[in-house]
Design goal:
The structure is a homodimer of 233-residue chains.
Chain A lengths: L13 H15 L11 H8 L3 H13 L3 E4 L7 E4 L3 H14 L5 H21 L5 H12 L3 H18 L3 H13 L1 H11 L3 H15 L3 H15 L7
Helix pairs in contact in A: 1-3, 2-3, 4-8, 5-7, 5-8, 5-10, 5-11, 6-7, 6-10, 7-8, 7-9, 10-11
The first copy, chain A, binds a DNA duplex (30 and 30 nucleotides) through helix 3.
Chain lengths: 233, 233
DNA sequence: ACCACAGTATGGTCAGACCATACCGAACCA
DNA sequence: TGGTTCGGTATGGTCTGACCATACTGTGGT
């Protein structure tokens, strides 16, 4: 019955080895976005594994938003290192929401946290607000809830961008992405978007004036207006 | 030269079709963590594709922390739906940090934001603090910087858990995971950890007394102590 | 009741083939 | 000289079929 404390063997699959090798080359050679990886067949031969294993590793890297594969021939073909964490995060959130291992409430609370933080930092940094203003006009011109949400998303993502933190901006984009349908329903339920517009103007002006506290407060109240059912207390 | 506005062909790869089918079955059949997917060969036959394509789809799902594959036979074998967003997020952060498409500063700022939020909510919720206390004793007994960081991570993740938001807790865990090496170096540079201990006690007591504002403040000052070089302003 | 062993379903891996794509370059005109 | 056409080729995408290691299942013997 006693295995003597052994048994930590934890078999490691071939494609995981390939992954580790590629990651090692990335960090050791200092590769960055734009650099090309060897072709699949070449990599398979170099590492002494089959092309299938290399392909599975590529699929993982692609899922994580680290490489992008192009067919054909030439400088742009093959596996190129990229930097797209957004879609990876979106897929992750969407699937886990579908699995019911996350609830919308948790997503919205997270968004609340991020937006307050981002608005405050955007204000302190006196960030450029032209993207915010553009999104605002887009909302004014919107002819459907879908279109409105589209520009609303742009507005809030622009705040995250303006905070200067790319990780937070990426999380923000994927949060919005995974709750798009929910947002559209919320806008339709709401009917009148004039309150939201006033909120947006208040947020924009607070950021422009560099008033971090007011910007955070404005964001908080805005979310309470947009999702009244979740902020009943 | 004019293609008449066409060209939206966007070839879709077979494994992406498989992914869509599986995701559809998850949402339509209401599958959740613990349920089993059909075997690879079976799935390939059902969908009329090769096993390779099914496997690539599986690899994506596994990367996103949605399925876990076990070899062998029996009820536990095969592809089982799981809910492990943590490792997926960790891999994502680690690789993008390696690609220099994210900077440590951004990770730590994000952590700062999350910890303040989580500490405040844990305090308001009068959450159970036994895990926090356990981690605290672990730090006291630690004999190396690595061991100290191990329990320190447990302490801070326990705060995130206590906030009750699984998404935020998952993000917290992956943040800590991806910056483990950095944290160890920071502790070694610091040498004396008594200041950190005092901070931890202050955080713990604030949460126990339900003082959200004090908990958030304590977390903020704690991070300034732990990473003085990043909070010089 | 227990145990040993063959059977079998599972994922993991490999080799080799073929396809579509898209660039490269040489041969071919104008 | 200049452009065009067309075959060559490197790339990822897909499929087939095979074999392996693993771990349960059931059967038969003790």
């Amino acid at each position: 019955m006693d295995d003597g404390g052994w048994r930590p063997v934890k078999r490691t699959r071939t494609f995981e080895d390939v992954l580790a090798q590629i990651e090692r080359r990335i960090t050791e050679d200092g590769l960055t976005a734009g650099d090309r990886l060897p072709a699949e067949r070449q990599l398979a031969e170099q590492l002494g594994v089959s092309r299938s294993s290399v392909r599975e590793a590529m699929r993982v890297l692609e899922t994580l938003g680290v490489v992008s594969s192009q067919v054909g021939r030439g400088p742009d073909a093959g596996a190129v290192l990229t930097s797209r964490p957004d879609s990876a995060l979106s897929d992750l959130l969407r699937l886990h929401l579908g699995l019911a291992s996350l609830e919308m409430r948790e997503v919205i609370d997270t968004r609340h946290m991020i937006e307050q933080w981002a608005a405050g930092h955007a204000a302190s940094a006196q960030a450029d607000t032209s993207a915010l203003a553009a999104a605002l006009s887009g909302m004014d011109a919107a002819k459907s809830a879908e279109e409105f949400v589209e520009h609303d998303t742009a507005f809030h993502c622009a705040i995250a961008d303006a905070s200067g933190n790319r990780l937070i901006a990426a999380i923000m984009r994927s949060l919005r992405d995974s709750m798009r349908r929910y947002s559209v329903e919320a806008v339709q339920r709401l009917g009148d978007t004039s309150i939201l517009r006033a909120d947006h103007v208040r947020i924009l002006e607070a950021i422009e004036r560099g008033e971090a506290g007011e910007a955070a407060r404005a964001v908080s109240e805005h979310l309470a207006h947009a999702y009244p059912s979740l902020f009943g207390h």
